[in-house]
Structure formats: structure tokens, C-alpha cells
Amino acid sequence: MGEGTEYKIYPDTLAEPYRTRRFKNGEDLYRALEIPREDKARRLGQFAKNFEFFGAPVGLIFTIDRQMEPGQWADLGMYMQSVMLLAQERGLSTCPQESWALWHKTIQEFVQLPANLMVFAGMALGYADTSDPINLWRSDRAPASEFLTVLA
Description:
- The protein is of the alpha+beta class.
- It has a domain at 54-133: NADH Oxidase.
- The protein has four helices and three strands.
- The protein has helices at residues 18-32, 40-48, 70-89, 104-110, and strands spanning 58-65, 93-97, 117-126.
- The longest helix has 20 residues, at 70-89.
- The chain is globular.
- The model has no long low-confidence stretch (mean pLDDT 94).
């Protein structure tokens, strides 16, 4: 499972409703791929595809300066979303992947990152294979009323 991350992707104790949503998302994803829960080898094989950028011709690695705080981490997330939207506008598909943070030491060494930069995430960039079931799957979304308050 890699070298571990330098930051927590999820809290140690993920509270509800996030814990249930995260679990359901994983179950639904593997069901769409027809990989049963008990088939650990195939599930790990699917997870390993992250580290091939799911076959995309371009892989991006996003880093952040270690001195940055949560506000700048939010900025990086918005920057990544901007890359994703611009790619979509040009007919390309993307897949953001925090899984790359699991191999931060290897990436740091391989691309010779300066010590002040931390690996945050990767992103696959290319053309989606629309015949692959995974590219037809969509995760459930909570209704906006569960997390959004609009003040008039």
C-alpha cells in the first residue's frame, strides 16, 4: 500500500454521514466493475491501476509547499478543479488521484522534487474509454439540502 502519506487523507475516525457514504461509494464502484468484496486480489489490482494513471497518456503530480496551511490546500484543490474543467472544455477527461500521496518518497526521488514540496495528488489526463464500465459509473450524490444553506 505504498510508503504511507505525509498527510491524512481521511480523519482517523470518519463521522457519519461521511463514513457510510465513503463505504457505499467503494462498494458501488467495485460492483460496477463486477468485482465482489471477497475478491481482494482483483480489488487490489483495480487500485493498482491508479499508479498507471489508468492508462492515460499524461499523468500530472501536484505538490504544495510544506509551509502552506489549510487555506492554500483549498487553493490547490480549486486549481486542480480548474485544470479538470479546462480539460473537459477541450474534450479531455481527468481523474484526480490522492493515491499518489502513498508513494511520496519515491516520487520525490524520481522527479527530484525540492525538499520544501510535498506530494499532494496526481491526476490522469487523456481521453476516456467510454466502452469501459468504470467510465459510465457515477457515484451517488447527497441532495444539496443536506449540506447547503441558502440565505436570501
